[in-house]
Write a structure and sequence with these properties.
Elements lengths: L5 H12 L4 H17 L4 E7 L2 E7 L9 E6 L2 E6 L2 H4 L4 H6 L4 E3 L19
Antiparallel strand pairs: 1-2, 2-3, 3-4, 4-5
Length: 123
């Protein structure tokens, strides 16, 4: 894999995002800004995952280490929590019946906590 400098990588990323509809472009940029603010030291990994354009945030340079990813496709944008249980405490019943991971629709304002201590609505 050829390494690129950050300026050309950013230009490539803007080009990938530019292929989406205007509403999705704005959403991808806004979610990316929020995730980068929350995880400033994470490695930002960009890749094509079948039908999804993915921006993953990982402490390593491996996509499998990603904590959260932005997944975009022609009909929308999602925020994927790869290790949901590690980042959002679940009660016993949720922990017993849930699988690893979850997602939320960042365009749905009802997905976000409305008060301190409230968890995001992750599916």
């Amino acid at each position: 894999m050829k390494k690129t400098n950050s300026e050309s990588a950013e230009k490539q990323l803007r080009g990938f995002i530019g292929k989406f509809a205007p509403t999705d472009r704005r959403l991808i940029r806004a979610v990316r800004t929020g995730v980068r603010k929350r995880f400033p030291t994470a490695n930002e990994l960009v890749y094509d995952n079948y039908n999804f354009f993915v921006i993953g945030y990982s402490p390593t340079k491996r996509p499998s280490g990603a904590i959260v990813s932005i997944a975009a496709r022609a009909n929308g944008v999602g925020l994927c929590f790869i290790h949901r249980q590690a980042h959002y405490p679940l009660d016993f019943h949720e922990a017993a019946s849930s699988t690893q991971g979850g997602w939320m629709d960042p365009s749905d304002q009802n997905s976000f906590p409305s008060s301190p201590g409230e968890r995001p609505k992750v599916f």
